[in-house]
Amino acid sequence: MALSKDDIINAVADMSVMEVVELIEAMEEKFGVSAAAAVMAGPAGGGEAAAEEQTEFDLVLTAAGDKKVNVIKAVREITGLGLKEAKGAVDGAPATIKEAMSKDDAEAAKAKLEEAGATVELK
Prior knowledge:
- The chain is of the alpha+beta class.
- The chain has two domains: 1-35, no CATH class; 57-122, CATH 3.30.1390.10.
- It contains six helices and three strands; from the N terminus they run αααβααβαβ.
- The protein has helices spanning 5-13, 17-31, 35-41, 68-79, 83-91, 103-116; strands at residues 57-63, 95-101, 119-122.
- Helix 4 crosses helix 5 (83-91).
- It comes from Vreelandella populi.
- Residues 57-123 form the Large ribosomal subunit protein bL12 C-terminal domain.
- One of its GO terms (biological process) is translation.
């Protein structure tokens, strides 16, 4: 007779923390995987492909905040836009400021805009 997921969950719920740790270690040894790697990989898609890490990001300004002038200056610095275009992008929030940025560039630009007072998302 096979155990259901609910049966297994109920059995684990009745265990002490040390028993759960031992159970996890035993499962890692039996199946040749680590729990941390399984969590990072997510659900298996037929066991073939692991999830690819995103390499390009879009910088989206969701709100300009109280210091709009500082945000416009930051947008100009990040994008190279003129004053009128940068002001239009900030006034039109939410707006995509820059597309297909590397992770490092996107994080730096996000930090710069947040420091200026804006609310920003990376997509």
